[in-house]
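Form 7-S
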Amino acid sequence: MNQKNIVVIGAGFAGMSVASFLAKAGHNVTIIEKHGLSGGRARKFSAEGFTFDMGPSWYWMPDVFERFFNQFGKKVADYYKLERLDPSYRIYWHDEPMDIPADYESLKALFNQIEPNSAEQLDKFIEEAAFKYEVGINKLVHKPGRSLKEFIDWDLISGVFRLDVFNSIKNHVSKLFKNEKIRQILEFPVLFLGALPQNTPALYSLMNYADIKGGTWYPQKGMYEIVDAMHKVATEQGVKFLFNESVSEIIISSGIATGVKTNNQIIQADIVVGAADYHHIETKLLAPNYQSYTDKYWEGRVMAPSCLLYYLGLNKKLKNVTHHSLFFDTSFEVHGNEIYTDKQWPSNPLFYMCIPSVTDNTVAPEGCENLFLLIPVASGLTGDDEQLKDKYYDAIITRAEQYLKQSIKDNVIFKQSFSVSDFLSEYNAFKGNAYGLANTLLQTAILKPSCKSKKVENLYYTGQLTVPGPGVPPSLISGEVVAKEILKTIF
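Output:
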Protein backbone atom coordinates (compact mmCIF):
# COMPACT_ATOMS: atom_id res chain seq x y z
CA MET A 1 0.00 0.00 0.00
CA ASN A 2 1.13 3.52 -0.79
CA GLN A 3 0.95 4.89 2.75
CA LYS A 4 0.43 8.66 3.00
CA ASN A 5 0.95 11.26 5.71
CA ILE A 6 -2.35 13.13 5.99
CA VAL A 7 -3.03 16.26 8.01
CA VAL A 8 -6.61 17.16 8.99
CA ILE A 9 -7.27 20.70 10.19
CA GLY A 10 -9.98 20.68 12.86
CA ALA A 11 -11.26 18.05 15.32
CA GLY A 12 -15.00 18.54 14.87
CA PHE A 13 -17.37 15.77 13.77
CA ALA A 14 -16.35 15.96 10.10
CA GLY A 15 -12.65 16.13 10.94
CA MET A 16 -12.72 13.08 13.20
CA SER A 17 -14.89 11.22 10.70
CA VAL A 18 -12.57 11.75 7.71
CA ALA A 19 -9.51 11.05 9.85
CA SER A 20 -10.94 7.77 11.15
CA PHE A 21 -11.78 6.44 7.69
CA LEU A 22 -8.37 7.42 6.31
CA ALA A 23 -6.50 5.90 9.25
CA LYS A 24 -8.57 2.71 8.97
CA ALA A 25 -7.32 2.48 5.37
CA GLY A 26 -3.76 2.39 6.72
CA HIS A 27 -2.58 5.98 6.43
CA ASN A 28 -0.75 8.13 8.98
CA VAL A 29 -3.30 10.76 10.02
CA THR A 30 -2.76 13.75 12.30
CA ILE A 31 -5.56 16.10 13.39
CA ILE A 32 -4.52 19.63 14.36
CA GLU A 33 -6.99 21.40 16.66
CA LYS A 34 -6.76 24.96 17.97
CA HIS A 35 -8.71 24.17 21.15
CA GLY A 36 -7.73 21.94 24.02
CA LEU A 37 -10.28 19.21 23.25
CA SER A 38 -12.13 17.62 20.36
CA GLY A 39 -15.61 18.56 19.21
CA GLY A 40 -15.35 21.92 17.49
CA ARG A 41 -18.77 23.56 17.85
CA ALA A 42 -19.86 20.56 19.90
CA ARG A 43 -17.39 21.21 22.71
CA LYS A 44 -18.43 21.18 26.35
CA PHE A 45 -17.45 23.10 29.45
CA SER A 46 -18.07 22.72 33.18
CA ALA A 47 -18.63 25.38 35.81
CA GLU A 48 -19.88 25.26 39.40
CA GLY A 49 -21.01 21.67 39.11
CA PHE A 50 -22.85 22.13 35.79
CA THR A 51 -21.76 20.56 32.50
CA PHE A 52 -22.88 22.35 29.35
CA ASP A 53 -22.90 21.11 25.77
CA MET A 54 -21.85 24.22 23.86
CA GLY A 55 -23.46 23.48 20.52
CA PRO A 56 -25.70 20.74 19.09
CA SER A 57 -28.42 19.53 21.43
CA TRP A 58 -30.79 17.57 19.14
CA TYR A 59 -30.03 13.90 18.41
CA TRP A 60 -31.86 12.93 15.23
CA MET A 61 -31.14 10.25 12.60
CA PRO A 62 -29.80 7.60 15.01
CA ASP A 63 -29.29 5.30 12.02
CA VAL A 64 -26.56 7.61 10.68
CA PHE A 65 -24.62 7.43 13.96
CA GLU A 66 -25.09 3.64 14.12
CA ARG A 67 -23.84 3.29 10.55
CA PHE A 68 -20.71 5.33 11.36
CA PHE A 69 -19.69 3.19 14.33
CA ASN A 70 -20.62 -0.06 12.56
CA GLN A 71 -17.97 0.66 9.91
CA PHE A 72 -15.34 0.39 12.64
CA GLY A 73 -16.73 -2.82 14.09
CA LYS A 74 -18.51 -0.96 16.86
CA LYS A 75 -22.01 0.13 17.76
CA VAL A 76 -23.41 3.19 19.51
CA ALA A 77 -24.16 1.15 22.65
CA ASP A 78 -20.43 0.44 23.03
CA TYR A 79 -19.92 4.11 23.85
CA TYR A 80 -23.08 5.74 25.16
CA LYS A 81 -26.67 5.01 26.14
CA LEU A 82 -29.49 6.57 24.13
CA GLU A 83 -32.91 7.44 25.46
CA ARG A 84 -35.84 8.37 23.23
CA LEU A 85 -37.56 11.48 24.49
CA ASP A 86 -41.33 11.50 24.95
CA PRO A 87 -42.67 14.03 24.33
CA SER A 88 -40.17 14.71 21.58
CA TYR A 89 -40.49 18.40 22.39
CA ARG A 90 -43.00 21.00 23.55
CA ILE A 91 -44.13 24.04 21.61
CA TYR A 92 -45.29 27.17 23.39
CA TRP A 93 -47.75 29.07 21.22
CA HIS A 94 -49.23 32.45 22.17
CA ASP A 95 -52.24 30.67 23.71
CA GLU A 96 -51.32 27.25 25.13
CA PRO A 97 -48.41 24.79 25.03
CA MET A 98 -48.51 21.61 22.97
CA ASP A 99 -46.50 18.44 23.53
CA ILE A 100 -45.41 16.59 20.40
CA PRO A 101 -45.70 12.88 21.28
CA ALA A 102 -43.09 10.34 20.23
CA ASP A 103 -45.77 7.80 19.36
CA TYR A 104 -46.98 8.21 15.77
CA GLU A 105 -50.60 7.22 16.42
CA SER A 106 -50.75 9.73 19.27
CA LEU A 107 -49.37 12.40 16.95
CA LYS A 108 -52.05 11.60 14.37
CA ALA A 109 -54.72 11.94 17.04
CA LEU A 110 -53.26 15.29 18.05
CA PHE A 111 -53.30 16.49 14.44
CA ASN A 112 -56.95 15.46 14.09
CA GLN A 113 -57.81 17.51 17.18
CA ILE A 114 -56.18 20.55 15.63
CA GLU A 115 -57.48 20.04 12.10
CA PRO A 116 -60.14 17.42 11.26
CA ASN A 117 -58.96 14.67 8.87
CA SER A 118 -55.36 15.87 9.02
CA ALA A 119 -54.15 12.45 10.27
CA GLU A 120 -54.84 11.00 6.82
CA GLN A 121 -52.89 13.86 5.27
CA LEU A 122 -50.05 13.24 7.71
CA ASP A 123 -49.89 9.60 6.59
CA LYS A 124 -49.52 10.79 3.00
CA PHE A 125 -46.91 13.40 3.97
CA ILE A 126 -44.84 10.88 5.96
CA GLU A 127 -45.03 8.25 3.22
CA GLU A 128 -43.51 10.77 0.80
CA ALA A 129 -40.99 11.88 3.41
CA ALA A 130 -39.95 8.26 3.98
CA PHE A 131 -39.11 7.89 0.29
CA LYS A 132 -37.10 11.12 0.36
CA TYR A 133 -35.27 9.99 3.50
CA GLU A 134 -34.40 6.61 1.98
CA VAL A 135 -33.12 8.10 -1.28
CA GLY A 136 -31.71 11.27 0.29
CA ILE A 137 -29.73 9.65 3.11
CA ASN A 138 -28.65 6.54 1.21
CA LYS A 139 -28.02 8.17 -2.18
CA LEU A 140 -27.90 11.96 -2.40
CA VAL A 141 -25.89 12.84 0.69
CA HIS A 142 -23.21 10.30 -0.17
CA LYS A 143 -22.45 12.02 -3.48
CA PRO A 144 -19.26 14.14 -3.42
CA GLY A 145 -20.96 16.78 -5.58
CA ARG A 146 -18.09 17.16 -8.02
CA SER A 147 -19.90 16.27 -11.26
CA LEU A 148 -23.41 15.93 -12.67
CA LYS A 149 -22.42 12.42 -13.76
CA GLU A 150 -22.74 11.33 -10.13
CA PHE A 151 -26.49 11.82 -10.37
CA ILE A 152 -26.94 9.47 -13.34
CA ASP A 153 -28.58 6.98 -11.03
CA TRP A 154 -31.82 5.18 -11.87
CA ASP A 155 -33.31 5.64 -8.39
CA LEU A 156 -32.61 9.37 -8.55
CA ILE A 157 -33.76 9.82 -12.13
CA SER A 158 -36.92 7.71 -11.79
CA GLY A 159 -37.83 9.36 -8.50
CA VAL A 160 -36.91 12.95 -9.36
CA PHE A 161 -40.48 14.22 -9.16
CA ARG A 162 -41.18 12.31 -5.95
CA LEU A 163 -38.06 13.90 -4.48
CA ASP A 164 -39.76 17.30 -4.88
CA VAL A 165 -36.51 19.15 -5.53
CA PHE A 166 -38.13 22.05 -7.40
CA ASN A 167 -40.98 22.65 -4.97
CA SER A 168 -40.58 24.39 -1.61
CA ILE A 169 -41.28 22.77 1.73
CA LYS A 170 -43.69 25.63 2.48
CA ASN A 171 -45.78 24.92 -0.64
CA HIS A 172 -45.62 21.19 0.00
CA VAL A 173 -46.94 21.54 3.56
CA SER A 174 -49.60 24.15 2.71
CA LYS A 175 -51.16 21.91 0.05
CA LEU A 176 -51.86 19.26 2.68
CA PHE A 177 -52.59 21.26 5.82
CA LYS A 178 -54.51 24.47 6.49
CA ASN A 179 -53.95 24.96 10.21
CA GLU A 180 -51.10 27.36 10.95
CA LYS A 181 -49.87 25.43 13.99
CA ILE A 182 -49.57 22.19 12.03
CA ARG A 183 -47.77 24.03 9.28
CA GLN A 184 -45.25 25.44 11.73
CA ILE A 185 -44.72 22.02 13.36
CA LEU A 186 -43.83 20.59 9.95
CA GLU A 187 -41.82 23.58 8.75
CA PHE A 188 -39.66 24.07 11.84
CA PRO A 189 -37.18 21.17 11.21
CA VAL A 190 -35.83 22.89 8.08
CA LEU A 191 -34.60 25.70 10.33
CA PHE A 192 -31.80 23.23 11.14
CA LEU A 193 -30.90 23.49 7.45
CA GLY A 194 -30.59 27.23 7.64
CA ALA A 195 -33.19 28.66 5.28
CA LEU A 196 -36.78 29.84 5.24
CA PRO A 197 -39.37 27.16 4.37
CA GLN A 198 -40.28 28.99 1.15
CA ASN A 199 -36.63 28.79 0.02
CA THR A 200 -35.95 25.19 1.05
CA PRO A 201 -36.64 22.35 -1.41
CA ALA A 202 -39.52 20.05 -0.38
CA LEU A 203 -36.95 17.25 -0.61
CA TYR A 204 -36.09 18.19 2.95
CA SER A 205 -39.39 16.92 4.32
CA LEU A 206 -37.02 14.01 4.93
CA MET A 207 -36.25 15.96 8.10
CA ASN A 208 -39.87 15.45 9.18
CA TYR A 209 -39.39 11.73 8.73
CA ALA A 210 -36.27 11.96 10.88
CA ASP A 211 -38.24 13.88 13.52
CA ILE A 212 -41.53 11.98 13.55
CA LYS A 213 -40.47 8.43 12.69
CA GLY A 214 -36.77 8.43 13.59
CA GLY A 215 -37.43 10.15 16.88
CA THR A 216 -35.71 12.64 19.16
CA TRP A 217 -33.08 11.00 21.35
CA TYR A 218 -30.64 11.97 24.06
CA PRO A 219 -27.25 10.38 24.84
CA GLN A 220 -26.94 10.06 28.61
CA LYS A 221 -24.29 12.40 30.07
CA GLY A 222 -24.78 14.79 27.16
CA MET A 223 -24.09 15.34 23.47
CA TYR A 224 -20.36 15.42 24.14
CA GLU A 225 -20.56 11.65 24.59
CA ILE A 226 -20.76 11.45 20.78
CA VAL A 227 -17.60 13.53 20.48
CA ASP A 228 -15.85 11.40 23.08
CA ALA A 229 -16.91 8.22 21.27
CA MET A 230 -15.66 9.49 17.91
CA HIS A 231 -12.39 10.56 19.50
CA LYS A 232 -11.97 7.00 20.84
CA VAL A 233 -12.73 5.50 17.42
CA ALA A 234 -10.19 7.80 15.78
CA THR A 235 -7.53 6.97 18.38
CA GLU A 236 -8.24 3.25 17.98
CA GLN A 237 -7.57 3.63 14.24
CA GLY A 238 -4.22 5.28 15.01
CA VAL A 239 -5.14 8.95 14.48
CA LYS A 240 -2.85 11.37 16.30
CA PHE A 241 -4.29 14.56 17.85
CA LEU A 242 -2.38 17.82 18.32
CA PHE A 243 -4.38 20.12 20.60
CA ASN A 244 -3.91 23.82 21.36
CA GLU A 245 -2.21 24.22 18.01
CA SER A 246 -3.38 26.63 15.30
CA VAL A 247 -2.59 26.31 11.61
CA SER A 248 -1.36 29.59 10.15
CA GLU A 249 -0.48 28.45 6.62
CA ILE A 250 -0.87 25.57 4.20
CA ILE A 251 2.50 25.28 2.50
CA ILE A 252 2.18 24.99 -1.29
CA SER A 253 4.85 24.11 -3.82
CA SER A 254 3.95 24.15 -7.54
CA GLY A 255 0.26 23.59 -6.81
CA ILE A 256 0.88 20.78 -4.31
CA ALA A 257 0.36 21.05 -0.54
CA THR A 258 3.52 19.84 1.14
CA GLY A 259 2.56 20.52 4.73
CA VAL A 260 1.14 23.00 7.21
CA LYS A 261 2.70 25.63 9.41
CA THR A 262 1.34 25.97 12.94
CA ASN A 263 2.12 28.26 15.84
CA ASN A 264 4.61 25.60 17.01
CA GLN A 265 6.04 23.76 14.03
CA ILE A 266 5.92 22.75 10.37
CA ILE A 267 4.26 19.40 9.70
CA GLN A 268 4.94 17.62 6.41
CA ALA A 269 1.97 16.16 4.57
CA ASP A 270 1.15 14.29 1.38
CA ILE A 271 -2.52 15.29 1.67
CA VAL A 272 -4.25 18.07 3.62
CA VAL A 273 -7.91 18.06 4.62
CA GLY A 274 -9.58 21.26 5.79
CA ALA A 275 -12.20 20.32 8.37
CA ALA A 276 -12.33 23.76 9.92
CA ASP A 277 -14.20 26.71 8.39
CA TYR A 278 -13.85 26.47 4.59
CA HIS A 279 -13.80 30.23 4.04
CA HIS A 280 -11.14 30.73 6.72
CA ILE A 281 -8.89 28.05 5.22
CA GLU A 282 -9.31 29.47 1.71
CA THR A 283 -8.75 33.11 2.58
CA LYS A 284 -6.34 32.96 5.53
CA LEU A 285 -4.24 29.82 5.03
CA LEU A 286 -3.76 29.95 1.25
CA ALA A 287 -2.13 32.55 -0.99
CA PRO A 288 -4.66 34.29 -3.29
CA ASN A 289 -3.49 32.41 -6.39
CA TYR A 290 -4.39 29.11 -4.71
CA GLN A 291 -7.89 30.12 -3.57
CA SER A 292 -10.73 28.41 -5.45
CA TYR A 293 -13.36 31.06 -4.75
CA THR A 294 -13.38 34.86 -4.92
CA ASP A 295 -14.55 37.30 -2.28
CA LYS A 296 -17.53 38.03 -4.53
CA TYR A 297 -18.45 34.33 -4.52
CA TRP A 298 -18.37 34.14 -0.74
CA GLU A 299 -20.35 37.35 -0.30
CA GLY A 300 -23.01 35.88 -2.57
CA ARG A 301 -23.55 32.81 -0.40
CA VAL A 302 -26.80 32.52 1.55
CA MET A 303 -25.72 31.72 5.08
CA ALA A 304 -27.61 29.74 7.67
CA PRO A 305 -28.23 31.63 10.91
CA SER A 306 -25.88 32.38 13.70
CA CYS A 307 -27.07 32.13 17.29
CA LEU A 308 -27.23 34.06 20.51
CA LEU A 309 -26.78 31.43 23.22
CA TYR A 310 -27.09 31.44 26.99
CA TYR A 311 -25.86 28.70 29.33
CA LEU A 312 -27.62 28.94 32.70
CA GLY A 313 -27.37 27.08 35.98
CA LEU A 314 -30.34 27.30 38.37
CA ASN A 315 -30.32 26.57 42.10
CA LYS A 316 -33.71 24.84 41.94
CA LYS A 317 -35.68 22.34 39.85
CA LEU A 318 -38.35 23.62 37.48
CA LYS A 319 -41.83 22.11 37.48
CA ASN A 320 -43.58 20.58 34.48
CA VAL A 321 -40.85 21.26 31.91
CA THR A 322 -39.60 19.18 28.99
CA HIS A 323 -36.12 18.46 27.65
CA HIS A 324 -36.72 20.50 24.45
CA SER A 325 -39.07 23.48 24.18
CA LEU A 326 -39.73 25.79 21.23
CA PHE A 327 -41.23 29.20 21.88
CA PHE A 328 -43.33 30.00 18.82
CA ASP A 329 -45.38 32.65 20.61
CA THR A 330 -44.32 35.45 18.26
CA SER A 331 -44.31 35.85 14.49
CA PHE A 332 -42.47 33.09 12.60
CA GLU A 333 -42.55 35.23 9.45
CA VAL A 334 -41.22 38.44 11.00
CA HIS A 335 -38.31 36.72 12.73
CA GLY A 336 -37.50 34.74 9.57
CA ASN A 337 -37.34 37.92 7.51
CA GLU A 338 -35.10 39.56 10.10
CA ILE A 339 -32.66 36.65 9.75
CA TYR A 340 -32.64 36.20 5.98
CA THR A 341 -34.00 39.34 4.33
CA ASP A 342 -33.47 42.36 6.58
CA LYS A 343 -30.47 40.80 8.37
CA GLN A 344 -30.98 42.71 11.58
CA TRP A 345 -31.11 41.88 15.25
CA PRO A 346 -34.60 40.45 15.85
CA SER A 347 -37.36 42.66 17.24
CA ASN A 348 -39.26 39.89 19.05
CA PRO A 349 -37.51 36.57 18.45
CA LEU A 350 -38.64 33.00 18.56
CA PHE A 351 -36.33 31.01 20.82
CA TYR A 352 -35.48 27.50 21.94
CA MET A 353 -34.91 26.14 25.45
CA CYS A 354 -33.11 22.90 26.28
CA ILE A 355 -33.14 21.53 29.83
CA PRO A 356 -31.04 18.35 29.70
CA SER A 357 -31.19 17.97 33.49
CA VAL A 358 -34.85 16.93 33.05
CA THR A 359 -33.50 13.71 31.51
CA ASP A 360 -29.98 13.50 32.92
CA ASN A 361 -29.02 14.08 36.57
CA THR A 362 -25.29 14.15 35.77
CA VAL A 363 -25.30 17.59 34.08
CA ALA A 364 -26.31 19.62 37.15
CA PRO A 365 -25.80 19.44 40.91
CA GLU A 366 -28.57 17.74 42.89
CA GLY A 367 -31.66 19.93 43.12
CA CYS A 368 -30.43 22.19 40.31
CA GLU A 369 -31.31 22.71 36.65
CA ASN A 370 -29.19 23.10 33.52
CA LEU A 371 -30.63 25.45 30.87
CA PHE A 372 -29.51 26.18 27.33
CA LEU A 373 -31.27 29.04 25.51
CA LEU A 374 -30.89 29.78 21.81
CA ILE A 375 -32.07 32.69 19.67
CA PRO A 376 -31.43 32.26 15.92
CA VAL A 377 -30.03 35.48 14.45
CA ALA A 378 -28.62 36.56 11.10
CA SER A 379 -25.01 35.74 10.31
CA GLY A 380 -22.74 38.74 9.88
CA LEU A 381 -24.33 40.91 12.56
CA THR A 382 -22.16 43.14 14.72
CA GLY A 383 -22.66 44.87 18.05
CA ASP A 384 -23.25 41.84 20.24
CA ASP A 385 -21.90 43.52 23.34
CA GLU A 386 -22.98 42.76 26.91
CA GLN A 387 -25.72 45.40 26.79
CA LEU A 388 -27.33 43.78 23.75
CA LYS A 389 -26.99 40.27 25.17
CA ASP A 390 -28.56 41.39 28.46
CA LYS A 391 -31.46 42.96 26.57
CA TYR A 392 -32.34 39.71 24.79
CA TYR A 393 -31.69 37.65 27.90
CA ASP A 394 -34.17 39.70 29.91
CA ALA A 395 -36.75 39.52 27.11
CA ILE A 396 -36.73 35.75 26.64
CA ILE A 397 -36.41 34.94 30.34
CA THR A 398 -39.49 37.07 31.01
CA ARG A 399 -41.41 35.18 28.32
CA ALA A 400 -40.18 31.82 29.59
CA GLU A 401 -41.29 32.69 33.12
CA GLN A 402 -44.69 33.74 31.77
CA TYR A 403 -45.31 30.46 29.95
CA LEU A 404 -43.68 28.17 32.51
CA LYS A 405 -45.56 30.02 35.28
CA GLN A 406 -42.58 30.07 37.65
CA SER A 407 -39.52 32.17 38.38
CA ILE A 408 -36.22 31.55 36.63
CA LYS A 409 -34.13 34.71 36.66
CA ASP A 410 -33.93 35.00 40.45
CA ASN A 411 -32.61 31.45 40.69
CA VAL A 412 -29.75 31.76 38.18
CA ILE A 413 -26.44 31.02 39.90
CA PHE A 414 -24.38 30.63 36.73
CA LYS A 415 -24.70 32.44 33.42
CA GLN A 416 -22.54 32.55 30.30
CA SER A 417 -23.36 33.75 26.79
CA PHE A 418 -22.02 33.00 23.32
CA SER A 419 -22.83 34.97 20.20
CA VAL A 420 -21.90 35.92 16.63
CA SER A 421 -18.53 37.41 17.54
CA ASP A 422 -17.69 34.28 19.54
CA PHE A 423 -18.43 31.99 16.59
CA LEU A 424 -16.04 34.17 14.61
CA SER A 425 -13.24 34.21 17.18
CA GLU A 426 -13.60 30.64 18.49
CA TYR A 427 -14.27 28.80 15.22
CA ASN A 428 -13.18 31.29 12.54
CA ALA A 429 -16.78 30.90 11.32
CA PHE A 430 -17.54 32.85 8.14
CA LYS A 431 -19.70 35.83 9.18
CA GLY A 432 -20.00 34.22 12.60
CA ASN A 433 -22.41 31.59 11.26
CA ALA A 434 -23.50 28.71 13.47
CA TYR A 435 -24.88 26.24 10.91
CA GLY A 436 -22.96 26.76 7.67
CA LEU A 437 -24.56 27.38 4.29
CA ALA A 438 -28.32 27.51 3.89
CA ASN A 439 -29.63 24.46 2.02
CA THR A 440 -31.32 26.36 -0.79
CA LEU A 441 -31.76 24.81 -4.25
CA LEU A 442 -28.88 26.91 -5.61
CA GLN A 443 -26.60 25.72 -2.80
CA THR A 444 -27.22 22.00 -3.12
CA ALA A 445 -24.86 19.21 -4.24
CA ILE A 446 -22.59 20.44 -7.09
CA LEU A 447 -23.59 24.03 -6.30
CA LYS A 448 -21.88 23.93 -2.90
CA PRO A 449 -18.20 24.80 -2.42
CA SER A 450 -16.32 21.76 -3.74
CA CYS A 451 -14.93 19.15 -1.39
CA LYS A 452 -11.71 19.24 -3.45
CA SER A 453 -9.66 22.36 -4.10
CA LYS A 454 -9.74 23.58 -7.68
CA LYS A 455 -6.22 25.01 -7.38
CA VAL A 456 -4.29 22.67 -5.06
CA GLU A 457 -4.02 19.08 -6.23
CA ASN A 458 -4.01 17.37 -2.84
CA LEU A 459 -6.17 19.71 -0.73
CA TYR A 460 -9.67 18.60 0.30
CA TYR A 461 -12.46 20.04 2.43
CA THR A 462 -15.08 18.50 4.70
CA GLY A 463 -17.74 19.90 7.02
CA GLN A 464 -20.81 22.08 6.96
CA LEU A 465 -19.73 24.49 4.20
CA THR A 466 -19.35 21.70 1.66
CA VAL A 467 -21.28 18.50 0.86
CA PRO A 468 -23.69 17.34 2.09
CA GLY A 469 -24.48 20.31 4.36
CA PRO A 470 -25.19 21.48 7.91
CA GLY A 471 -25.99 19.31 10.91
CA VAL A 472 -24.26 16.62 12.94
CA PRO A 473 -25.30 13.55 10.88
CA PRO A 474 -24.33 15.29 7.59
CA SER A 475 -20.94 16.11 9.12
CA LEU A 476 -20.28 12.44 9.86
CA ILE A 477 -21.29 11.61 6.29
CA SER A 478 -19.17 14.48 4.91
CA GLY A 479 -16.07 12.95 6.47
CA GLU A 480 -16.83 9.56 4.96
CA VAL A 481 -17.55 11.01 1.50
CA VAL A 482 -14.30 12.99 1.42
CA ALA A 483 -12.27 10.05 2.72
CA LYS A 484 -13.58 7.96 -0.18
CA GLU A 485 -12.65 10.70 -2.65
CA ILE A 486 -9.11 10.81 -1.25
CA LEU A 487 -8.72 7.04 -1.25
CA LYS A 488 -9.64 6.93 -4.95
CA THR A 489 -6.47 8.89 -5.69
CA ILE A 490 -4.13 6.76 -3.57
CA PHE A 491 -2.77 3.64 -5.22
